[in-house]
Amino acid sequence: MRLxxxxxxxxxxxxxxxxxxxxxxxxxxxxxxxxxxxxGREAAAGSMPVVAAxxxxxxxxxxxxxIAGLSLRALRRRAGRAEARLAALEAMLAARDLVxxxxxxxxTVHYAIGLEGVDxxxxxxxxxxxxxxxxxxxxxxxxxxxxAGMAARALGGERLSREFSALGPVPPAVAAxxxxxxxxxxxxxxQVTVGPFxxxxxYLLEDVSARRTEAERAMERVSLLSRALDRAPFGxxxxxEGGMVQEANSAFRRLLGGQHANGRLFVEVIAEADxxxxxxxxxxxxxxxxxxxxIDVRLTGDMERTVALYASQxxxxxxxxxxxVVHVVDATERKxxxxxxxxxxKMQAVGQLAGGIAHDFNNMLTxxxxxxxxxxxRHPVGEPSFADAMQxxxxxxRAAGLVRQLLAFxxxxxxxxxxxxxxxxxxxxxxxxxxxxxxxVELTVVHGRDLWPVKADPGQIEQVVINLAVNARDAMPxxxxxxxxxxxxxxxxxxxxxxxxxxxxxxxxxxxxxxxxGIDRETLTRVFEPFFTTKEVGMGTGLGLAMVYGSIxxxxxxxxxHSDGLGKGASxxxxxxxxxxxxxxxxxxxxxEGTPTDTTGGGRVLLVEDEDAVRLFAARALRAKGYEVxxxxxxxxxxxxxxxxxxxxxxxxxxxxxxxxxxxxxRQTRKQMPDLPVICISGYTxxxxxxxxxxxxxxxxxxxxxxxxxxxxKVKAAIESAASERA
Length: 727
Known about the structure:
Elements: H1 8-35, H2 38-95, E1 98-103, E2 109-113, H3 128-136, H4 143-155, E3 160-166, E4 188-197, E5 200-207, H5 209-230, E6 235-239, E7 245-248, H6 250-255, H7 275-288, E8 292-298, E9 306-315, E10 322-330, H8 332-378, H9 384-410, E11 418-420, H10 422-437, E12 441-446, E13 454-456, H11 458-474, E14 480-491, E15 495-497, E16 500-502, E17 505-514, H12 521-524, H13 544-554, E18 558-562, E19 570-577, H14 589-593, E20 604-608, H15 612-624, E21 628-632, H16 635-643, E22 650-654, H17 662-672, E23 678-682, H18 687-693, E24 699-703, H19 708-726
Parallel strand pairs: 12-14, 20-21, 20-22, 22-23, 23-24
Antiparallel strand pairs: 1-2, 1-5, 3-4, 4-5, 6-7, 6-10, 8-9, 9-10, 11-13, 14-17, 15-16, 17-19, 18-19
Helix pairs in contact: 1-2, 3-4, 8-9, 8-15, 9-13, 10-11, 11-13, 16-17, 17-18
């Protein structure tokens, strides 16, 4: 249009002149025909051919000129519209920060839009690839060839797009607003798009630095989130509609023991017994669309993992269907603690029952043994009644041993702990163990070097080792080898041992192992349950290992049972806390003062016992030995007797009584008579009561059941000890 605009006026003027000339010629002919005389008309008629020829000539010039003028006007209108469209295109490209370069088929620049600041006109006819390469990276000699290759493919009908790192000066139209200061170092990215255009190709250049930066930031966020999910302390996996695992994080793979889960059916990693409830949960989530869980299931493999599953629906990327996101939380420790708590509750309940029964039973055994002793004093050896009385006493003592096991299990037996050397204790016990084991069982004791001391009741430890040895003997009916090994063990962190947790510290370990029939896995979880036994009826009470468990727990230790299976033997390891004190020699009153052969004595004794049979036996026994005995059935009655301020030399009281118990009675009595010796008698001593009175001086314990001789010996030793201290 710019080229046509220079000649449009001349063409129109020529057309107008031609029209005027034709009109004038026609007017002359018409006037001559009308106004001329006859003779003149003949002359005019002779000139008509000339005029007609002139008019024809004028028309031949005028009509094309008129047609040309009309065509030029149409072209001018088209050019105006093209310029308007071109301006709109330029505005659109500028709004999108684009540069357009139209190139001929030979790759030369035909037209460029948006190259403000760049001499586009000066590059007309130049190589478009070199022009664009100069905008991207002038120093890259291989870049023009790359762009030329893209142009060749575009001429074939393809549309290509590629991003380049632009280190050269980016045209202002291409540079995104505000990005120049944000891009440190000046590095930018240009996207070059090439496609067919008319008879050539067209390049579109766009600064995608901001978009690429945002995409990179988004990818960094996605990568960070992906790493966070992969390193989560719980398992996360995605399964499709067919139940196939598509993705799984590291925590879930660790739950599987390092196995890969992708491409496997989810139910394949679930224990067969729990697959039904997993299928039901998945179906429930798919039908309702709501999240479900938790459910506790076991995983396959050798690690015996229990996990809690949570499931919810999720749209899968690049998939038409929906899948599930499953969160897997390791519940092994929680289930172990739940089992441990349930076992503890069960043991505590049975222990309370056993302790209550044992206390009442000890009262009856005390009366039975005591009255047998009184009977034996009247019926010496040789009389028919002597053998019967001895049978009664022996069976009562056997029953007393069973009660001690009950009390040991319930952790309520009366103890006399002291710091002991396990090496010496086991060395002394080994002779007894060899007699118990018999000739077909070989006993080997391996003592650890520099063994640490332990604070415990020696009799309690001996009973624990004896129970384990007898259990091992019964597990080796054809004979075998029993090994007792000791050593020091340091726990530098908490250790999970079966259903127990060992606190950090120093321990003395005693391991009793055998080569017997072994223990299967199911039985191994129940060996410490009270009254549980695998022996034949009449061969065991089921309290041996329960007593071991209760005794070791009472000492603050841990007992661990282990077996590799049937036919592979078994081992029991006792972990006892190390004592910071030095080894002590026995300080029992009878041993300290010497056991008197003469148990007679004298003095006033206040006897407080709520069990009538025990009180009657003890009173008769002490009176027979020469003591003056005042009886009281309850603690209140004893306080009333003491209110009269009688002189007494010894207080003998039961510890467990209604209302005023033994500890309260001792404290009230000591207010009046601070130096009064006290003997506490009880079937068991609760820890809270023992702690209240054990720090008081001249307080001695006599556990039930006791014999006449034990009672008389303890009473005489206590009175003589108090008298010697006053002297």
